[in-house]
């Protein structure tokens, strides 16, 4: 995609907030293949700084200079303590944290793959299975009635055939969710 955008003179925007959560193969930014890429990243996912609103962008000088102009007149700056936390976070090794999420991904995927049409996610901490019956919204409503909170896929797509699961939970909660989902899937 990066090379195709370059061939056609298209500026590519790359959201890389989940880049450290790349489980099965190394992460590659499109900026490695094309200088005309603006990369957006931040600290919320990798370093548990959700809500602190500290992020950054890098890319072609002319684009970044225009972004700075816009930023200067619409937002002063992130609080200094958040900036210091961000600089400190860069020295933090997230590999144990990422390995824990890799394990959670595998636990959830292996627990659901026999009863759900599902693609094994390569990163982040969400899974997007297809509802085994009814619409995504109908399946989610039944899961909620069974004490399992999920989000219908229609929130992320025009289609209402899937649902989104987060595996940012402890293993016992994930195992309980697997049991509920498999029980609901058998109703098909």
Task: Spell out the key features of this protein.
single chain; 188 residues; alpha+beta; Aspartate Aminotransferase, domain 2; Aspartate Aminotransferase, domain 1; 3-stranded mixed sheet; 3-stranded antiparallel sheet; 7 helices
Task: Walk me through the topology.
Blueprint: H1 2-7, E1 12-15, E2 37-42, H2 44-47, E3 55-58, H3 61-74, H4 80-89, H5 95-112, E4 126-127, H6 136-145, E5 151-152, E6 163-166, H7 171-185
Helix pairs in contact: 5-7
How many distinct helices?
7
User: Going across the major beta sheet, what is the strand order?
Assistant: 1-2-3
Beta-strand content estimate? 5-15%
Q: What assembly state would you assign to the polypeptide chains in this entry?
A: single chain
- Poorly predicted sequence stretches spanning 5 or more consecutive residues: none
CATH structural class of the largest domain: Alpha Beta
Q: Considering the protein shown, what is the CATH homologous superfamily of the largest domain? A: Aspartate Aminotransferase, domain 1
DSSP strand count? 6
Q: Name the helicity range.
A: 40-55%
CATH architecture assignment of the largest domain = Alpha-Beta Complex
How far is it from the N-terminal to the C-terminal residue, by CA? 39 Å
| Cα-based radius of gyration, to the nearest Å | 20 Å
Stated plainly, the CATH topology of the largest domain is called Aspartate Aminotransferase, domain 1
| Major β-sheet profile | 3 strands, mixed
Number of domains: 2
Output the structural class. Answer: alpha+beta
* Whole-number mean pLDDT: 94
Apparent shape: globular
Order of helices and strands: HEEHEHHHEHEEH
């Amino acid at each position: 995609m990066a090379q195709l955008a370059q061939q056609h003179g298209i500026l590519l925007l790359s959201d890389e907030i989940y880049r450290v959560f790349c489980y099965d193969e190394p992460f590659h930014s499109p900026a490695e293949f094309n200088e005309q890429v603006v990369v957006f990243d931040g600290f919320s996912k990798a370093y548990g700084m959700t809500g602190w609103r500290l992020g950054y962008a890098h890319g072609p000088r002319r684009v970044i200079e225009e972004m700075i102009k816009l930023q200067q007149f619409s937002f002063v700056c992130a609080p200094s303590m958040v900036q210091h936390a961000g600089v400190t976070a860069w020295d933090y090794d997230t590999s144990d944290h990422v390995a824990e999420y890799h394990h959670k991904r595998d636990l959830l995927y292996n627990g659901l793959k026999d009863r759900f049409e599902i693609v094994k996610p390569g990163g982040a901490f969400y899974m997007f299975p297809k509802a085994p019956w009814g619409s995504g919204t109908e399946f989610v409503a039944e899961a909620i009635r069974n004490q399992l909170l999920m989000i219908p896929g229609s929130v992320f797509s025009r289609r209402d055939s899937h649902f989104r699961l987060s595996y940012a939970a402890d293993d016992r909660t994930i195992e309980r969710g697997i049991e509920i989902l498999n029980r609901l899937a058998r109703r098909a």
